[in-house]
Amino acid sequence: MKTIIFPGSFDPFTIGHKDVVERILPLFDKVVIAFGVNLQKKSFMPLEERMERVRKAFAGNDKIEVTSYTGLTVDLAKKYDTHYILRGVRTNADFEYERIMADANRRLEGVDTIFVVADEKYAYVSSSLVRELSAFGRDITDLIV
Ligand code: ADP
User: Fold this and answer.
1) pTM value?
2) What average pLDDT score do residues 39-46 get?
């Protein structure tokens, strides 16, 4: 079974994240959406609510698994017996950061990163934008799952 891990903070999980998952789905048997937990950081939306919303968004699709983890993504990949991680890229800045992580993960752990380039419709969407809009009382429902 071909499995890929999609790791992120997903605080919250946006329509941009959903698009990345939908576009990789035809290539894999299973996509594991993995919420990285940072115990030091207070989250915008509680972890359980974020995970539940994603489960609902993909309800009925048995290729999707939703989980949370602490520690290294490469260790999670091993647990799922895969060598593939999924990441999205919107900008050059995303790419510069991602390529270093991807290189490290491949060299040190033999785990490869597959990139999906953001659809231009969603390139402006980020979890931090959603948090910012929400902090100033704007409606965020169309930007998140
Ligand atoms: P992290 O905190 O690990 O960077 P995020 O939750 O912010 O994780 O994002 C997870 C992944 O989704 C990252 O690879 C990020 O670049 C990508 N991503 C975020 N927003 C979008 C978008 N609108 N379109 C495509 N990819 C995106």
Assistant:
1) 0.96
2) 92
Q: Are 17 and 10 in contact (CB under 8 A)?
A: yes
Helix, strand, coil distribution of the chain in percent, nearest 5: 40, 25, 35
C-alpha 43: how far from chain center: 16
Is the Cβ atom of 12 under 6 angstroms away from ligand 1? no
Q: Are the beta carbons of 5 and 84 closer than 8 angstroms?
A: yes
User: Is the pLDDT reported for residue 55 higher than 90?
Assistant: yes
CB 98 within 8 A of CB 89: yes
- State if residue 33 touches ligand 1 by the CB under 6 angstroms criterion: no
**Per-residue model confidence as pLDDT tens digits over 81-140:** 999 999 999 999 999 999 999 999 999 999 999 999 999 999 999 999 999 999 999 999
CB 23 within 8 A of CB 121: no
> How remote is the CA of residue 9 from the centroid of ligand 1, in Å?
8
Asked whether 17 lines ligand 1 (CB < 6 A), one says yes
Burial (Cβ within 10 Å: 0-12, 13-18, ≥19) of residue 108: exposed
